[in-house]
Amino acid sequence: MNLKKLLFSSIFFYSFLILTDLNDIIYANVNDIKNISSSLKLQDYKVDVEAKELKFIENNLSGITYNKDTDTLFAITNKPRDIYEITLNGDFIRKIELTGFKDTEDITYLYDGIFAVIDEKKAQFFVFYLDKNTEKIDISNVKDSFRLKINSYKNFGYEGISYDKKNDTIFIVNEKFPLELIKIKNFISKKSMDITFSNKLTAYNNFMGDFSSLFFENRSGSLLFLSDESKMIAEVDSENGAQISFLQLKEGFLGLKKDIPQAEGISMDNKGNLYIVSEPNLFYIFKRDL
């Protein structure tokens, strides 16, 4: 083979890797081998409830969070913009209407009835109080709001939000262009609040096509990055960005009978059960196979 043919073949193969998921698969599998042990033991999880249709939600289910004080889940939709309190089995409890918001992509529970919601189109997140009697939340009555760096790419803005209670840190992920993690330290205390746009914790996850959500697990200190495009969860050490494990959300993995079509939200409860929601209105529970 002459030099010209060799060069052409190399360019063709490299282009093929870029234009397909093969590069992602090779990269992920190599790193799976390097990181066999997981602090959350994600490799031991199996699907317990698969693709339960939440019939009280028509479309655009975009995020989910666990409230340890009520032992229930709170799901959010981006159109219409509503919050739903549901049981740990995905059954309806109540709906809370959101008014004045534009594109509510994710929700996280902070403490004592305080929640935070990320709005992609406004490039802001909002903090508000919600109790058992709350029926509506208007944007003009929120407890606090924060405007983030404006992203110039339409519909590729801030997608996920989670909270590290021990270190009083908010984590926010940008969907793509760039894949980015924002850390806001001393968020509640506001003592020397420090905001950083960190590439360190996302550099090792550049094989993921996007970030559709994230979850901070307080006991292990791990961040779980959720990718809709790559149909994958990546577990990362929140301090140094080290890869710990990966899980594929595809048919044949974790006992799944079908791919999760469009994974948009992720959370865990105090027993370590993993919850994922997918558009249009699908609900999944994964439990550790003891």
Summarize this entry quickly.
It is built from two helices and 21 strands.
Explained architecture:
The protein is mainly beta. The protein has one domain (41-288): TolB, C-terminal domain (Neuraminidase, 6 Propeller). The chain has helices at residues 3-19, 22-34; strands spanning 45-53, 61-67, 72-78, 81-86, 92-99, 104-111, 114-119, 124-129, 136-138, 144-147, 158-164, 169-174, 180-185, 194-198, 213-217, 222-227, 232-237, 243-248, 263-268, 274-278, 282-288. Strands 2-3-4-5-9 form a 5-stranded mixed β-sheet, with no helix packed on it. It has a 4-stranded antiparallel β-sheet with strand order 1-21-20-19, with no helix packed on it. A hairpin with a 4-residue loop joins strand 2 (61-67) and strand 3 (72-78). 36% of the residues are buried.
List the defining traits of the structure above.
2 helices, mainly beta, Neuraminidase, 290 residues
